[in-house]
Amino acid sequence: MGHNPVRMKISIDTSNLVVAGAAVRLSLPCGPSRGLETSMPRIFRPCDVTGKLIDTGIEIERSSFAMIPAFVGKIACPHCNADHQWSKDTAKIVDDAKAASRL
After folding, report:
1. How many domains is the chain built from?
2. Among 26, 58, 86, 100, whose Cα sits 20 to 30 Å from the Cα of 72?
């Protein structure tokens, strides 16, 4: 039984996004990092249709997330196959990505 990573399209306009000293890691393709155990929280966004959490593939410390200015992005949802807008206000910071995948 092989691992089939979830593929998502994420777009965020970062032209004005500047975060000095932020601890941010982007995992591409989106989904759990292979072979790397990390305690860094991940950003999720709930699906508008199913309510299930969508993994953005972004790992970030809570203190760094607090420093990010407001933004609007778009993410392809693997749960309903639609594109959803997401923002800092709709983002959910989750400490345990494995637990979030069961929600």
Report:
1. 1
2. 100
> Is 76 contained in some domain?
yes
How far is CA 8 from its chain centroid?
10
In-domain check, residue 16: no
Q: Flag whether 84 is in a domain.
A: yes
pLDDT digits (tens, 9 = 90+) for 19-77: 444 455 555 444 444 555 557 899 999 999 999 999 998 888 888 898 889 989 899 99
Range of the domain at 73: 21-101
Whole-Å CA distances, 11 to 31, 75, 85, 98, 99: 16, 7, 9, 24, 25
Question: Residue type for 79, please?
Answer: H
Closest CA to 68 of 23, 100, 8, 38: 23
Question: Quick one: which of 47, 62, 48 has its CA closest to 100?
Answer: 47
Cα-Cα-Cα-Cα torsion 87, 93, 99, 103, nearest 10 degrees, comes to -40
